[in-house]
Every structure is written in C-alpha cells, then in structure tokens.
Amino acid sequence: MIASGGTRLAPQADAYERAVYADAKQYGQHVGATEPRLCTKPLRDLTPETSHGFSVIDFARDVLGVTLYPWQKALLIRALELNEDGTYRFRKVFVLVGRQNGKTTLLTVLALWWLFVDADSFPEHLPARDFLILGTAQNLDIAEEAWDAALKRCDPTPDEDDEEYVVEWLATETRKPVKTNGKKSLRLRNNAKYEPRAASRMGGRGKSAARVIMDEMREQQTWDVWGSVSKTKNAIFNSQLWGISSAGDIKSVVLRTLRDGAIKTIREYEQYVESGIQTLEEFANTHDVATALFEWSAEPGKPLLDIPGILQANPSVGYKPMFFESIWSDLLGDEPEATKRTEILCDWVTSRVEPFIKGDGWSSSADGPVLDDDDNVIELGSQIADGSRMTMGIDVMSSARSTSSVICVAGYRTDGRVHLELIAQRTGMSWVVKHAKAVRAKTGINQVALQTRGCPAADLVEDLKEAGFDVVSISGSTLLTSADRLNKRIQADKVRHRSQGPLDLAIANGTTKDLSGMPVWDRYGSPVDTSPAVAATNALVALEAFVPPPKKPPPPPPPAAQILTRDDVESTAEASLAVAAF
C-alpha cells in the first residue's frame, strides 16, 4: 500500500487510488497529506469487495451530495476493511487529526450510511430493530453536533431553515424524531436508531450499541466513561467503535494508553510480518489485529511553524478555502505552545513542566512478572511479606467537574524494601470508608494516613475514626517532608512497586510546590492527577514513621482468694461471726 506520507501505490491498489485521489482539488500551494502518518496496515488489497469505505464514499456523493476530502476517503476505506465473511475487521477504530479538519462532516456521513445502508447488512444476526448508534462526547453539545447534522438530512418534519438540506428518500424512511435536549433520538421506520449522549459513567450503561462514536476522546481523564460506553457493543454482532480526537496531553490517560497499544502493534507488524519473521496468521494469533489507529499528525519535535508538519496534521488544507492561512495565523497567536501543538499539529504534549521525581528510578524499581519454568506468568510482581505490618494511604482529587479518590497500600517485602501498590481508584469519595473497612477485614490493616487539613481528603477523617481506624495525620512537618521521603527512597533503591498506569503516570509527571522551603505534591498545578502519588506517599510515611508502640502485656490475674478459719474460739450454741464460714 502507500508508504507513510507518500502517494505512490502498488498496481493492485488502483481501486483505492481512483477512489481517494480522483476529485482532488487545490486552492493554494499547500496541500494536506492524504495518508495518515501512523496507520494500521490492511490485511488485503482494498477494493469495493474488501472495504465498505467505497460504499460510504458513493453514498455521500450520490445521496447526500457531499464530496469528501481525500483524507476522509482514505480513512473510510481503511477503517471499514472487511473480513472474508463480510464482517468488519476492526472492532475499535481510533482517529487522530488536527482540529477543524472536517470530522463532524465525516461522522455525519458515516452515521447516515450506517443507519440507511449498514443496519440491514446482517438481518439474521442483527435485525435493524436492534441496531443502535450511540454518539458520545465529554460535552453533550459536541455529541449532538453530528446528530443534528445527520437529522437535517432525513428529518420528515424539518424547520423551515433546514428544508433545503433534507434528502427526500431518507426522510420517507425516518420516523418523527425526538428533539428534546438530553433525550434526542433519530429512528427509522425499520427501528434502527441514533442517539447522542454525554460521555459519563452512566451515559451508555444499559444499552447495547451496534456502533459507538466517541468524540473528543482526549478529554477522558479516567477509565470510567470508556468502561461504561465501550462495553455497550460487546454483545452485538459485527459491532464497531470509533474514537476520534485531536492529540491529548499527559492527562489524556485513556486515549494515550489505547494509542500506545495500537502503535506497538503497528511497529511489531513491521518488525515481524513485513520482514518475514512471522506469517500473518502467526502474528494475528498473538496480537490484537482488530484495533486500528489512523493518525494525521506532525512529526514530534518539529518546529511549530514547520510547513510539512502542518500539512501532515491538517489533511484538509488545499481542499478547504483559506484553511492554511487560518492555521498559520493561529500558530502565530498568543495561545500557549502546548495548546497549539495538541490542537493544530496533533502533537502529543506529554509534559509541560519538569517532574519532581527525576530519572528512571521509579520505572526501574517496578517488579516484572514472575514466571514458571515454562515462562508462563504466574503472578505480577513481588508480594508484601507474610506478617509484615501494612498501612493504607488515601487521597482525594476534587475539581469543579469531578471528584476521584485513591487508596494505596505499603508494606515490607522479604528483602527489606518497601512495596507500594495502588489498590483502588474511583470517582467520588463516599465509597472510600466502606472500601477501607473491606481491606481491613481481609488484610488486618488498621492504620490509615491522609492529609487532615486544607484538602478534600480531610472530609474523610471523622468517618474513618468512627469506623475504628488509627488515622495518621499527614500535616505540619510530616507533610513538608513526605514527598522528599518518597524521592529519597526511590533514588536509594529502597522502594519497589507493581507497575500500574495511574500511579506510574502520577510519579513520573507529578510536580511539587514550595511550602516553607520544602517540596509538597501540587494537586492543582501538576499536568497530571497526583492523587495516586500522594496516597502512596502517605502510606509510605505511615509505614516508616508511625509505627504503633508495642502493646503492653496484660497484668497477671490476682492470686486466688484464701479461706481463713479460727480454732481459738470455743464453739457455742449461739451463732458467732467469728466462726461463720463465708
């Protein structure tokens, strides 16, 4: 197929070349890159028989009157690749591209094609009445943007201003839509549906969706939304999820993790299959070949005004009038460079400031998997030694948009090092005390450390005390020296841990603020959520500096009482206390 960034295809790809490049127009000297810089390779030649992308392109042109940009055509053909049985090769498709490049138009066309064409593809496995498209975004307005654009094309009862957009054939197949904000629904006469929802923990729960659109995935900073919405398609035949976004930053935990996994597969495909080390079947047996990444982005580290980078991240340049001039103006504007790189150049900004814990001490102290004689994983990392004293550390991160809480534990290993581990992280804080009690019941841990003043976690103190916990107050000089304590233990190789994404992210990128000349974890100034680092630090401090005094042995029982009798008193007939037995 096409080399990355190039335009020359092998002869067998003529169908792809004709479909993608036939309508190319240039409005100026600069033309955006049609092909993604990073992409999952097709398993077969892409033709109308092996990809539904051709059908979507024809539908857009012939039914909707929309001529897609070359990059949109390339994406559709690649992303809608088919297996030999006609099902989609990819269950998850991730698309990264600079802002304002036409993703709403792309999603609108795709959603309409799904509804009016694809919903009837496998009636024996997925009848149209069970076909649901779930469109989500962190902000409901964004999710509804593509839905509103789709409705304009098929609304049987349009507003006067929207009548010119309606396609009569589509409108006759569409039922009266629900337009109430927050409850919008577009339903066809065959009962195929399209619903927009806010990306929340409960946004998709209870629904089984054949197609899922996750817009602006860069805004997902925890796994709650992904866990809720992505699972809606698991029980549906031939389902597909599309995640689309510009690049994220260090807080974009979900997108970054999924992107990293896809890139790893792309690199290993090049290493093993293209070099002939493995057959495609062998590779497929050990890798996820049902997840795709298609990314239009500038080469990392290039100058902000590097024109090739601009064109690689903005594939609509040359097809969208004045677009290049607008981008150039934005890059010269006053916004922070990190913002320009993520939104315009689709360049990942992994850290904007220098982290407190430097070097690779933390990553090198992670326990690797424990293997048996046949190299099978039997457990992940070393465990805290049997009988070791253990402590819990708690922290809460709260903002205007969300609250999340973390529990970490600390204990000693058999080699004398401290083992740190994150055991729970969830939204809200009402669950913390109950979970801590469950941990105590299982492990015996009764000592809990948290900052007791001036932070959200302080609200948990009284509840923890009422639950019978020994609460260690991280305050005053203890607070001032806590972050540096963890740093020194890491540098001295006295800490081990199980590699866990949220904790690794917080330690590797968290920053501190100066308080009385000492470094204290900065919850709100760090580029990441530092609460896992704070909770682990608290657990470490409690383990090392707050060892409970040994319990005093109970006093011995008093001696047994003795019965005293007298024999120096003569017995009389009258009762006498002197000789009475008690």
Automatic annotation (TrEMBL):
InterPro entries according to UniProt: P-loop_NTPase
Name under which the protein is recorded: Terminase
